[in-house]
Amino acid sequence: MRIKFAILIPLALASFVHLANPVGFPDIFFDEGVYMRRAMNMVDIGNPQESYLYDHPYFGQIVLAGILHVTGHPNSVSTDPESLQNLYLVPRLFMGLVAIVSTFLVYHIAREKFGDSTALVSSVLFAVMPFTWIFGRILLDSILMPFLLASILCAIHFAKPHGKMWLVPASGILLGLAIFTKVPAFVFIPLVLWLVFQKRRKIQDLLVWVVPVLLIPMLWPANAIMLDQFDLWMRDITWQSQRSNSIGDIIGAFLIVDPVLFVIGMAGVFYSAIKKNKFVLLWFVPFVAFLFMVGFKQYFHWIPVIPVLCMGAAVLLLDLKKLRYFQSNTIHRGIIASVMVFGFASTVLIITNDVSRNQFDALSYVIENYEDQSTILASPAYTWILNDVFDFDNVPIDYAMILFEPVRTERVTIIADPHFMLDRDRSIQMQKAHNNTQSVSYFEGDIGRYDTQLYPYTNLRLVNEGFHIDVRSGSWK
After folding, report:
1. Out of 123, 197, 387, 406, which could bridge 107 as a Cys pair, Cβ 3.0 to 4.6 Å?
2. What pLDDT, in 10s, does the model give residues 222-250?
3. What angle do CA 191, 234, 419 make, to 5 degrees?
4. In what order do the strands lie in the sheet with 374-377?
């Protein structure tokens, strides 16, 4: 009974964190609009491939499309900002449930590998530390997490003396679906392969496991071949592998969001290396090595290693008792409790803010002042709503489409949010769009209420698409 009660603690905490304010925090990120647009395309035409860009496999939009279809979303909507904001309620609630399921799986993986105490501490860290708010975004990295974690858990159970053989193909199917969601998940093949192989050391087990791992993701290039677009698939795969960013920037972003988890998590990984814990090392090292080779791009690319950082941190915190200075139960438990309370308090201070409302105030203004003979240039966070909910004409799926297609109207309206302003100087067309228009309405948001140099409000530097939105209009010709 004690064990059954223990798991309720991280689940209750995760439920509060992820379901209390699902749409208000974080802001609606550019990529979320991309995945919503693709899901709506899947619902409308039944084809997971949108246009000619092959950047990610299909399972993410298939899952989202299934949720939208089953719930009948989107329902009727008005131009009121609150009504527009609720268009993200169902998918954001789904992402919250995905985070809760991931918390459940983190608990069970840690319990099987390290014991009850580590399971409780690591799952609570996963549930309450500030980095957890990122799991609320509609991102492929978050969607694949339950499949990856369940694959690992199946392999762990198979490795037990009485583990059933059906767990092997089940683990393979789950990891195959994770890769079919986002390709970098393939770096976890060595970890799960090792878990499966260590039981009987038979090649047959590996073959049964690896077949679905390889075949399921192959549906992606197979579909490109059916559409006679395999050359485009190869081109885009090459482009994806050449994207890069500074490792310092990505680490810096992690420290802005969650310096405590970063420090104790990394310390836990190093501690595991000293103890030669293969499970932790096989989870962490291949993933980070891959991202070093291919190039870090976004802070949320850390998501698949957050569970093992929490487990490593939990092992380290619990083993502090072996040191002379922490042998007192009061001091030892106080340290662990302090980390958890600090993390939870920091998270609550930021997730209870509504930072996305400003985005829908701006969108509401654009919809209510829409002109048939004007092209609207905006982030996908807005364009899927304009196209799929309001059936507006002359709305490219992404403002960057003006680089590839001519603007056919005499006037343009721009939702110049921070993402647009970041991209503005990357092309002549984008500069022209901005320079040929004038500000007609400016939406500041509530950023002035916060000191973003003071933690935990430093997190607001990464939700800045909800602030400073300039709606501009003017002649294109």
Report:
1. 123
2. 999 998 999 999 988 877 766 666 677 78
3. 85
4. 374-377, 411-416, 469-475, 437-443
Q: Any residues with CB less than 8 A from the CB of 234 and at least 6 apart, and which?
A: none
Share of the chain above pLDDT 90, in %: 78
Cα separations in angstroms, 193 against 23, 124, 230, 278, 461: 38, 28, 30, 12, 39
Enter the tokens of residue 130. 């500030």
- Dihedral, 16, 19, 25, 27 alpha carbons, nearest 10: 150
Chain centroid, CA 68 distance in Å: 18
Render 274-326 in DSSP notation, one character per residue. Answer: HTT-HHHHHHHHHHHHHHHHH----GGGGGGGHHHHHHHHHHHHHHGGGSGGG
Domain boundaries, the chain: 1-352, 357-475
pLDDT tens-digit series, residues 172-192: 999 999 999 999 999 999 999
What is the model's pTM? 0.94
Mention every residue, 6+ apart, whose C-beta is less than 8 A from residue 222.
Answer: none
Torsion of CA 41, 42, 48, 49, to 10 degrees: -20
Q: What are phi and psi of 470, to 5 degrees?
A: -105, 115
Supply angle C-alpha 186, 15, 71, rounded to 5: 75
- Tell the burial category of 11 from Cβ atoms under 10 Å away from its Cβ (0-12, 13-18, 19+): middle
- Three-state secondary structure readout of 153-203: HHHHHHCCCCCCCCHHHHHHHHHHHHHHHCHHHHHHHHHHHHHHHHHHCCH
Q: Which of 81-85, 264-268, 302-306, 322-326 has the lowest mean pLDDT?
A: 322-326
As a whole number of angstroms, the distance between CA 283 and CA 287 comes to 7
- Per-residue pLDDT tens over the stretch 98-107: 999 999 999 9
On whether the CB atoms of residues 385 and 376 are closer than 8 A, the answer is no
CA distances from 358 to 69, 195, 215 (A): 28, 48, 44
Neighbour count for residue 319 (Cβ, 10 Å) = 14
> Alpha-carbon distance 138 to 32, whole Å?
5
The predicted structure's pLDDT at residue 1: 41
**β-pairing verdict for 469-475 and 437-443:** antiparallel
DSSP 118-140: HHHHHHHHHHHSGGGGGGGS--H
Residue-by-residue DSSP string for 17-67: HHHSSTTTSS---HHHHHHHHHHHHHHHHS-S--TT--SS-SHHHHHHHHH
Q: Over pLDDT 70: what percentage of the chain?
A: 97
Handedness of CA 201, 204, 207, 209 (dihedral sign): negative
Residue 415: the pLDDT is: 97
